[in-house]
Amino acid sequence: MAYPTKNKKVIAFVEESAKLACPDNIVWIDGSEEQLAALRKEACATGEMIELNQEKLPGCYYHRTAQNDVARVEDRTFICCREKENAGPTNNWMDPKEAYAMCADIARGKMKGRTMYVIPYSMGVVGSPFSKIGVEVTDSIYVVLNMAIMTRVGLNCYEQLGEDGDFIKGFHAKCDVDPEKRYIMHFPEDDTIISVNSAYGGNVLLGKKCFALRIASYLGKTEGWMAEHMLILGVTFPDGKKKYLAAAFPSACGKTNLAMLIPPKHYLEKGYKVECVGDDIAWIRVGEDGRLWAVNPENGFFGVAPGTNEKSNPNALAATRKNTIFTNVAINPADNTVWWEGLTKPAPDKLIDWLGNDWTPASGTKAAHPNSRFTAPAVNCPCLSDAFNSKEGVPLDAIVFGGRRATTTPLVYQSRDWDHGVFVGSIMSSETTAAATGATGVLRHDPMAMKPFCGYDMGDYFAHWIEMGKKAKNPPKIFNVNWFRQDENGEFLWPGFGDNMRVLEWILGRCDDAVDAQETAIGYVPYAKDIDLDGLDYSRETLESILYVDKARWSAEADEIAQFYKQFGDKLPKELSDCLAALKKNCEA
Ligand code: OXD
Ligand code: MN
Fold first, then answer.
1. What are the helix and strand counts (H, E) for the chain?
2. Catalytic residues
3. Which residue, judged by its Cα, is nearest atom 2 of ligand 1?
4. Which of the listed residues 10, 25, 35, 51 has the most CB atoms within 10 Å of its CB?
């Protein structure tokens, strides 16, 4: 067989995978439009994908996953390192020997009658010092087409590898999409990922969560850099100055919306501009100047569709108007376009829902699955930053953490210093969303929004953060935001979306020491007068109320954090236990 690469390790990996799964054919993906067009045609012919209205949505296609396969499966996601303790208390662990044997049994012969596709891809711009190469084998055309949007797929990845270069091996087999035999397995010590019995994006687009977060966080720890669940955005000020921030929020908590924010009118009139570098993942290194530099290793957006509309995120909506794959949204049969809750009000009279059933507004069910998605090329985004393809990335002025908290956590506060900032990230908690299976709306600890994505012991991960602060002579300032405060009737107390610019302005002002703050038990909080409310029908009293630090609540929070921290034992850095003790003391003062 003529291979498109001379890399012996790639050839061996593909041959071993084929020997196990027994596909009828092997197709080497080269990333060409010609090959992808043929695959789209084939997927439409078999019903795996549906072609949408090519006049209204050129290049757009639709896909439905199995009903039992609509979200990440955290309970079936494992870190398979040799020593159990290295996976830490927040990960599922399986012995690698056992995991390899179990997955081999599950996948053996499962590609019979199917084709195995070999996808060479780069996370990051090919040739950038940040970038890393992966090869995913899969029996799903849907995966090939999504990977071609989300990553940089092409034969130049093989060129970068040369004859002997290493890469991340990804094996994906749909098998029978059996939820009882669904496993998403990571072998960080072997640069290997195995995913079986799923076809949902977060479980099978192996460049994303599996590689760019779980495996990469482990690589970052061993090589001295960081892989984080963070958006990256740039703000241009009226005087032309640019600042960048990275922000970590749990899944489906508005990262895509913040990354593509359109500032309120008077900011635009003054000349402010916000640009998106990334909406989900940041790889961060210390630059020669002692600052932290970040790149977005992805090439597209795998965004949550429901709630995305002309008002909440016009840039994301615009990004989905061509060359996009929609998954589990509803179809409008009147014109063969797509619809989801929140897209328009009222809903169209008749739809085909995500299950393929006829739907009307009276059906009493959701037309689109709450975790339905669009996979859109980054180049489609009207506010994509010029720095998106920069090989060096962008220098960070601020890091922002944030969760979904109805009470307690104020709209925004700043940490006292780097170590306290690491503490602030480590105590993040948020209500669960539909991005993962299980109950939604349950408050859980999600340090740095990395609970589902940290590929090693979370205590060691905290220590790595502390270490990175020491290595960076000029690290970013660290903040926490909470857009989700509610009143006693469950109504949100902050308008969010574009109005979050008002908070970003305060954050970036703090980075230049251009705005004052009040010191509180938890860190620096704005004076209400310093948040710009121009053009907003919003009272200073309400603002005061969501900036207020309630010591009694925070004292109870500190006790709860102490319980949470216990599981890390002596892996918990002293810097963090000191910050916790200080918090408790401040609340009692
Ligand atoms: C995502 C997630 O898809 O976090 O980005 O689940
Ligand atoms: Mn995410």
1. 16, 32
2. 253
3. 251
4. 10
